[in-house]
Design a protein that fits this description.
By secondary structure, the chain is of the alpha/beta class. The chain has ten helices and ten strands. The protein binds zinc ion.
Length: 328
Amino acid sequence: MNIELTDRPRRLRRDGIRSLVSETSVTAQDLVAPVFIDATTTTRTPIESMPGHERVPIEDAVTRVEEIRETGVEAVMVFGIPAEKDERGSRAWASDGVVQQAVRRITAETDAYVITDVCLCEYTTHGHCGVVESDAATDPTLTVKNDKTLELLIKTAVSHVEAGAEMVAPSSMTDGMITAIRTALDETGHTDIPIMSYAAKYESAFYGPFRDAADGAPAFGDRRHYQMDPANSQEAKREVRLDVEAGADVLMVKPALAYLDIVNTVSSNFDRPVAAYNVSGEYAMVHAAADRGWVDLEATAVESLIAMKRAGADLIITYFAEKLANQL
Ligand SMILES: [Zn+2]
């Protein structure tokens, strides 16, 4: 039988040519490694649902970041677990708060690029990302007071930058947070500090293990009144457009794997770098399956990161950063 094929894509899949025509690559320089600094402990505490990750005391912050830098990953995102919590989350903006102390040490003693997560949920007794008033317990739709939260986010962001943070990443999905933080940073002389907005952050079941890691589960209700509905994609464009207009420098989509369409939408529609947050649940699933021998840990993780880049991500925040950096 004589079949005439006009094109044969397999010609370019042979060894030697495959890598020349490869469209996407991931390098250690694309990755940001999250670190958890814990003011409640003097020893490193493994995070059970995130194998290989630990909460580290402030004294170990520099060592922890040096371990990451040795793998070739150059940027870290710092999360804090405060020594004590209150209604308003006041330890979030304390100049001797856990993030502020850690960032001062990290920037003084390492060359890491330091990004801080700006939110209140790890610092409040109720675990919500902002100001909660007494009516919230009876009517959960009122959980977080948007405009009153802005003022606290501003204080937190400015205190992080004053401690040495090189980029701030507000994650609370408070309407107006980018405008408020940009204005406050400019007014305090920090015009050169970029903002990475958690621009399209979904109310996701994939965050479960993080809540172990950062001790930030809400004491009542959930976050669906301020985080986005997983069903929505047009709304992501609206959220992102608002943040672009407000001066966001980097646009983040969170989670990543189940939201690659959103990563692609943001990358195609906006001329700002796009970050994908490969969240704790995505990490934990791969680990759990690999532990049972059902998937290959590293191959699955690398393929996931390539998929995020292919979808349009410029940078990826991932718990796999250290583990994979050497082989990328
Ligand atoms: Zn939060």
